[in-house]
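During the second year of the project, the team shifted from modelling isolated chains to modelling whole assemblies. The rationale, set out in the original proposal, was that interfaces cannot be judged from single-chain predictions alone. As a representative example for this report, we include one of the complexes processed in the last quarter. Its constituent sequences, exactly as entered into the pipeline, are reproduced here:
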Amino acid sequence: MSEIISPTPGAESTPQDMARPMLEINRLTKEFGGLRAVNNFDLALPRYALHGLIGPNGAGKTTVFNMITGIYTPTSGQICFKSQDISNMEPHEINQMGIARTFQNIRLFPNLTVLDNVRIAYHPHAGYTMNDSIFRNQRYSNKEKELTQKALEFLGVFNLQGRRDWIAMNLPYGEQRRLEIARALAAEPQLLLLDEPAAGMNPAEVVSLMDLIHFVRERFNLTILLIEHQMRVVMGICEHITVMDFGEVIARGNPEEIQANPRVIEAYLGPGAAALSEKYKRGKA
Amino acid sequence: MNRMSRSTLVFLIGAVLVFGVTQALFSLEILTSFWSTIIRTGAVMAIVSIGLNLIYGFNGQFSLGQWGFYAIGAYTAADITWRWANNKSADGLVVMLLVTGLSGTAIMFLRAKLARIRGLDALSAFTLYLTAMILLAVLSVFLGGFITPAVSGLLQALPTALSMQIVFFLAVLIAGLIAAEISFIFGLPVLTLGSDYFGIATLGFSIIVKVLLDNSDTMFGFVEMKGARGMVGIPRLTSWFWVFLFLFVVVVVTRNLLRSSYGRAIISIREDEIAAKAMGIDVAHYKNLTFVIGSLFAGLAGALYAHINGFLSPNTFNFIRSFDPMIIIVFGGLGSITGTLAASFTWALVLEGFLRLWLPEGFETWRYVVYPILLLLLMLLKPKGLFGDYEIPFLRDQLPPLEPIAPERIEEGIPPAAIQASATTMPVKPSDNPTSQEASE
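Output from the structure prediction step:
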């Protein structure tokens, strides 16, 4: 499955100061039956990057996310995280390596409290065995206390400490998003994948979300890969953008380059749209 | 050990009181042996239902196979005590001890080895484990022949009543363990199925077990089981003390397990499997773990049941009856241990007790009409069960005593701009109140 692969086009755009990219994807392909959802997808994310992945509906963006997080196994190709091949790992192993994600339609644990949502994310680092918990020994009480204290402090960072005992599904939408991001970051990952974080948000919430993304990136020293439909968010915060259409990468570059790219405009607005937009621009000028 | 909290103290006192009062009522014969049987059956149903509640109520896996594990537990324990009571031979005990011990060790060993193989499919693992268990069972029968005389002699040296109790206690434990081991192997391939398909597969398991029991005397030569005619002559050893002890341990273990990080991992799988995976929880492992613990309880309950009436018939383990624990946990409230306890005793008292007494003579079988009507009414009036997710304080999730976060440890939170918006979007669901959203725009 993992054949030897020539240097990828994406790697050329990597800044030279970083020796190895945080995440490196080579010729990633996923087929569902006869449908090729993702075809030869390449990507290289340097440390501390904030990278956008955009494309019309059905372009295969979420499939890429699902392959990175191990929910789908790639048909072919390779995903390397911190120079280690993770393409055939289980989702929980990938998470424990330091990749966390959020989902397009928020996936909290709806009937549990806000605190428990965060405490579940700490489970791989619980620090006591099942026998400790069954016999409720000293180790259990110490570690459980430590874990809960940590979770509470963490909620404080996201300004959710007042919601500690709320049932997650009763939170307002914006706070549900915030909780989902908090939960993803609880286990201190190095790479965060955000799948349409601004979906369903009103303009005011979108602004606060952009602030939040900047904040967590600095606070946790994160590399972020972001799928988003709202151009305001993508163009506003991403340093680099990859555009997909029908499973293929059609453009790469910084926001200005992408906005001017005729292939991107045509992918979004249909054939001929690029010419029209040229005309419109000239008309305005 | 940490100091006992108030709720623990209340629970312990309550448990001792319930045990003492009931025992006194039995001893003074204020409650007849008719009621004693019913109450003990209720406790047995509580054990199997708590196991099922773990699997279905807390882990979200719809299992109809618990009745099969209950049957396995019942016949395993009955076989052991029957041989001791009627033949004065410990062969059943020795062989089954060897089977559970060796299989358990083999499972642990193989699990550690197989964990290193990436991408091993569940069916191959299943075949491997099953082969190992069958081979070890054959080996145990062979080895048992050598050890039995010594163990029999040792047990015969003890006073009869004492040796009987020892054999019984070990038989119950073995029954639980064998059910747990079988459920581990069976669960490997079956738990990869989605919830409904898992239900059908486990239902199939219950049916297979029933058919095997019907033919046990001819197919495997377990002559004492007497196949479809039913097994008689099992010593009636399940006293109120034993059922209560096992029920108590089961409740405490379940509570300690659930109110820990491991319990939260189990519950998170019910809430959202994909999110649980993405949070670093090994979903396959915890599903299997819960299934094994639930089946262990079912095996224990079966063993206790076998020694209540001293009679076992495969008809008791018909798959239709596998809905009994399912009804109990839905009736009591999915995900509520308190509800399960209450519902189990209610189930036994109402169905076998009061309805039998109150319905006019000749109409006793009508209780199967009255009882479903009661269920229908309850489901219409209280769709979340009698208790919903209510728990008595002891069984609740209690936060450990927390220190207030020291001011110097409070880190700089998210900037005010990042939270300002969510304060303006209000109520519970944005869709419920479109006006407020418009207002904030």
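The longest strand of chain B covers residues 231-232. Chain B touches chain A through 57 residues (CB under 8 Å).
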